[in-house]
Amino acid sequence: METEYDDGKEPHKVEVRRQEEDVFLVKIDGQEHEVQAEFVAPGRLQFRWQNRLYKAVVAQEGDDRFVFFQGQVYKLSKREEGAPQVEAAVAGDPLAAPMPGRVVKVLVKAGDVVETAQDLVILEAMKMETRITAPFAGMVVDVNFGDGDQVNQGDKLLEIEAT
Amino acid sequence: MSSLEIRFPDEKSSEKLFDKVLIANRGEIAVRIAEACQELDIATVAIYSEVDRRALHIQLADESYPLGNPLPQESYLNIDKIIKVAKRSEVDAIHPGYGFLSENAKFARRCVEEGFVFIGPPPDVIDAMGDKIQAKELMINANVPVLPGYTGYAKNIAFLQKKANEIGYPLMIKAAAGGGGKGMRIVYRSRDFRKALSSASREANSAFGDGRIFLEKYLEDPRHVEIQILGDNHGKVIHLFERECSIQRRFQKIIEETPSPALDDGLRAKMGAAAVRAAKAVGYQNAGTVEFLLDSDRNFYFLEMNTRLQVEHAITEAITGIDIVKWQIRLAAGQPLTINQEDLFQRGHALECRIYAEDCTKEFRPAAGRLHRFLLNIVNKIGIRNDTGLSEEGEDVSIFYDPMLAKLIVHDATREDSVRKMVWALQNYAALGIPTNIDYLKEILSHEEFRNGNTSTHFIPKYFKNWAPTAEHTPVGALLALSIYDLVESTPIYNGVNGFSEPDPHSPWKSATGFGRDSLRLGKSVVTKISGAARKPFRRSTAPKESPADL
């Protein structure tokens, strides 16, 4: 079965087959590799590839995969062949909460006219403040949270209509 | 250690220190204190908010009590709740750790009033030093140099703006009740003052429950050098040398070291003496730290006095051989300080890195979520200390508290050796699930100016202003590991994570035949296959970027 791993830069097509108890044949982007691998603990494996020994630690959360390899952490998402690509809808939305936290203060209300870069909401997470500012000039049409509310990452905090 | 002669008080012959201590904190420092108490044969009581109910510090304590709501004000900052637990569990003493209530004189006073020993200085000393304004005045009287500024109590914004303009820019706004960088702002222009003032005040209020601020001239490019002190209840005060904590981001220390590359014996003795003088002037007892700014002309200025255990105390422990937390407990119990200044010396060099849950690609925002793995993958941790409140299996990192995940401390013969050891250790630190600053720390340690000891509090803004991790392509090796992991993980025969349900993979109770649950375990045959010549390239391959030749 072919699996696709996307590291955010490019997708990698991977096919893996177990040849012997501890020998795996892995095809990555068309290239075949023979790997001898053992798990030394849950999520921790060491493997021999091209006559060298490597170790790695792997963890997962849903389709997300985290690989610790040679001192670096790589985050990839797994897709079975044919599964549709999911677009991150809220990524980069300047009016969405960039992190989970608490609303310290909402500085505007519906109907307010705001200028570009004007402070709109003060968020706090782990005692650090972040200001949400207007990405463009416009009018506030909706405010979705109040002072003291908890918000999740990606929650749309307010709506602005451009003037 | 041959010339370090300390006659430790005999705890057996004298009265027992304490029967039971409440640890009014969480995370790594609660773990640190619990283990020190265990060593001294003292029972411990832990407290926890809802999100910490499975935390390591709970598992270590003899008793633990819930505080409910995870909001700091409702849990670790809630004096009434904590005192109630202390009464119910009948403890003798309370250790506040750092942060939270550690420098809250009201709390210390309440402890004393309710009949508990507060493991720290007397409440009046906390008051005096906690009020940074009063502290500054006391230092002037004790002949300790200070920076110019406004230390009045005025709240009027227009008046403060006027004072700020008089001091000149850049200047610092600091929380009168501050510490650890919270509620601090640097202001470069007059017109930015008001905004910074309200923001600093609000952050101070949130962190300490006190929004008062004061103003101080901002020194260009200083080093942050602090002196650890210990004082007993009988008037004796000694210092345990310096720590340089210049590597800071947004006033938050991230790398600390001792000895400081900037100090020679003469300056060290001068600063040590000033710190002892400062401590004696206020009648200091227990462990504390006098922080100084050191300019390029070797002038030093009193910054503040921290009347508590510092996050970075472990590097001092490494080079002096003194267990500061155990001494805190002994001193609080009234035992005399039996270490003499002349017996102390600095042995080698120690370095600490603070590992934070933060996203370096998104302005270092604190990260929260599930930490799936948090593993320092080194077997013999020679000269390596990893202080954390998290288990290796990882756990949820909540948004409610400080994002520090661990303190990694190394100790070696020279600065060069310990920097090298630290890079190697970080290279083997697997933190999976949420972003951390580990790569960032490695980059700082590898920077030429850091290697040369040219550190200052402007190091980060100067050399790492727009730093972002280099987006690397996923190496084939990582994809190999991942694909094999996923194949094994999805194979139905392996019930559970990678087929592991027993803790010991080498258990003699397991048979090693067939395509069964044992077939992926590291058996004897494999150990043989990967021994010998394979080990050398293995070591190189785990650290290709920071091989010793590069250091």
Structure description:
Chain A is an all-beta fold and 163 residues long. Chain B is of the alpha+beta class. Chain B has 18 helices and 23 strands. An 8-stranded antiparallel sheet of chain B has the order 14-13-10-11-12-15-22-20, with helices on both faces. Chain B has a 5-stranded parallel sheet with strand order 3-2-1-4-5, sandwiched between helices. A 4-stranded antiparallel sheet of chain B has the order 6-9-7-8, with helices on one face. In chain B, helix 4 packs antiparallel against helix 5 and helix 12 runs antiparallel to helix 13. Chain B is globular. Classes of the chains: A mainly beta (163), B alpha+beta (551). At the A-B interface, strand 2, strand 3, strand 4, strand 5 and strand 6 of A face helix 8, strand 17, strand 23, helix 13 and helix 16 of B.
Residue share in helix of chain A: under 10%
Q: Largest sheet of chain B, order of strands side by side?
A: 14-13-10-11-12-15-22-20
Task: Give the biggest sheet of chain A.
Answer: 8 strands, antiparallel, barrel
Regarding quaternary structure, what we see is: heterodimer
Number of strands of chain A: 15
How do the strands line up in the largest sheet of chain A? 1-2-3-4-5-6-7-8
| Structure annotation, total helices of chain A | 0
Average pLDDT reading of chain A = 87
Structural class of chain B: alpha+beta
Write the layout of secondary structure elements.
The complex is a heterodimer of chains A (163) and B (551).
Chain A lengths: L1 E5 L4 E8 L4 E6 L2 E11 L2 E6 L2 E10 L2 E6 L2 E9 L20 E6 L6 E2 L4 E7 L2 E6 L4 E6 L6 E2 L6 E5 L1
Antiparallel strand pairs in A: 1-2, 1-8, 2-3, 3-4, 4-5, 5-6, 6-7, 7-8, 9-11, 9-14, 10-13, 11-12, 13-15
Chain B lengths: L19 E4 L3 H13 L3 E7 L6 H5 L2 E6 L10 H11 L3 E3 L9 H9 L3 E2 L4 H8 L1 H10 L7 E2 L6 H11 L3 E5 L9 E3 L5 H16 L4 E5 L5 E9 L5 E13 L2 E7 L6 H17 L4 E9 L5 E7 L6 H8 L3 H9 L16 E8 L1 E2 L5 E2 L2 E2 L2 E4 L7 E5 L7 E2 L6 E9 L2 H13 L1 E4 L5 H9 L1 H4 L7 H5 L12 H15 L33 H6 L5 H8 L9
Parallel strand pairs in B: 1-2, 1-4, 2-3, 4-5
Antiparallel strand pairs in B: 6-9, 7-8, 7-9, 10-11, 10-13, 11-12, 12-15, 13-14, 15-22, 16-17, 18-21, 19-23, 20-22
Helix pairs in contact in B: 4-5, 12-13
